[in-house]
Amino acid sequence: MADPVNTPATDTAIHRRVEACRAGTDPQIARLRSGWAVLGDPQVLPGYCLLLPDPVVPHLNALEPALQQAFLADMARIGQVVQEITDAVRINYAIFGNVEPALHAHVIPRYEDEPADLIKANPWGYDWSAAPRF
Questions:
Q1: 130 is a domain residue
Q2: The domain containing residue 98 runs over which residues?
């Protein structure tokens, strides 16, 4: 029996979205050295993006050091561009992989006009089901 913690998943939303990017059927933003910059769906905060590695790996430590550096540099590059085009006051970055067990980074702009009860909270406090689709 496979160990669910140490056996990499091969059919996650991340895998499917990277395949769509490769096929040209996903409205990706850009192909970067480490993977794909894509718009987050839903757009819980305007400009929310993800970085998806290509090829897909289970977690950051599954990449060799040079590719780890490229992934993190691409994540920061996406954040810089998002901040410039949205006038966000800051960018939040998150790498979890708990729900979709494949490496991906969330790049989330934050705005000074967010609701008072959410402006200092993590973006998972928002109602993602009510957020507009991109």
A1: no
A2: 7-66+89-112
